[in-house]
Amino acid sequence: MLQLGEAAVPFALKRSRRRRTLGLTVTPHEIRIHAPSWTPRPEIERYVAQQHGWLLRTWARMQARVPQDAALPASSVHYLGRKLALDIQPSLFVEVRRRGDTLRIHAPHDADLDDLIRSWLYEQATRLLAWRLARNARKLGRAPSRFALSNAQTQWGSCTHSGHVRLNWRLVQAPLAIIDYVAAHELAHLVHLDHSPRFWAQVAVLCPDALARRAELRRMSTTLFQL
User: Fold this and answer.
1) Does residue 117 contact residue 226 with C-beta atoms inside 8 Å?
2) pTM of the model
3) What is the pLDDT along the chain (227 residues), one digit of tens a residue?
4) Is 169 exposed, middle or buried (0-12, 13-18, 19+ CB in 10 A)?
5) Domains in the chain, please, with CATH?
6) Most CB atoms within 10 A, among 7, 51, 56, 179?
C-alpha cells in the first residue's frame, strides 16, 4: 500500500525487460509502477517519493470522478475547446452530426447517449489528432514510427523507445493549442526519452509557451476525463 494523504492506496509493481524508464499509471482502484527489470528497488522508491504530489492530485481526481459518473445526463459536450449544445431527437436510426455550436443526435429512445457522444468524439479524434501530430512532426523533422489513439484514464500521451506515439482521444475536446502541446511533448521523446532539461528544451522549440499550456491542461483535465 502507498500512503497518499489520508488514503492507503494499493499498488502493483510491474517490471519489464523492454521498458527503459520508470513510469506511473493511476486507476480508480490502484497505482501501477512500471520499471525496467534491472532497476534497483531503492531507486524505484525514490522515484515514487518524488512523484508523491502528482500521485496525490491524480488519485484524488480519480476518486472525485465516481459521483460525477452518476450525475444527470449532460446538456453539452466540449469539442476543440468549444461547448456544443446537445440537440437530441427521437429516431429509428442513429445519426450524430455537428451543426455549428450544436451536436444533433438522432437515436432511439433507449440508446446510450454517452456512448454515441464518445463514439462521435473518437471518430473526430482519429483525423484531428493525426493531423496535429503530423504538423508538429514536420517542425521536428522527425516522424513517429506509428501513431494510435489511447483510451488511458490518466495519461494524455505516450512514446515508446521504438517511436510509437499514442495520444488520448479525449484531447479532441480541448483547444488546438493544448493538443499541439501534448503532440510536441510526445514528439520530443523521439529525441530524448526522458524528462531531462534537454527534453524540455526540445519541447520549447516545438511549443514555446509549453509551460502555460501544460498548466491549462492540468486545470481542465477533470472536465476532459468525465467522458
Assistant:
1) no
2) 0.69
3) 677 877 778 888 888 888 888 888 888 778 889 999 999 988 999 999 999 989 888 888 877 765 544 443 567 899 999 999 999 988 888 999 999 999 999 988 888 888 899 999 999 999 999 999 999 999 999 999 999 999 987 789 999 999 999 999 999 999 999 999 999 999 999 999 998 999 999 999 999 999 999 999 988 888 888 87
4) buried
5) 2-69 (no CATH), 112-224 (3.30.2010.10)
6) 179
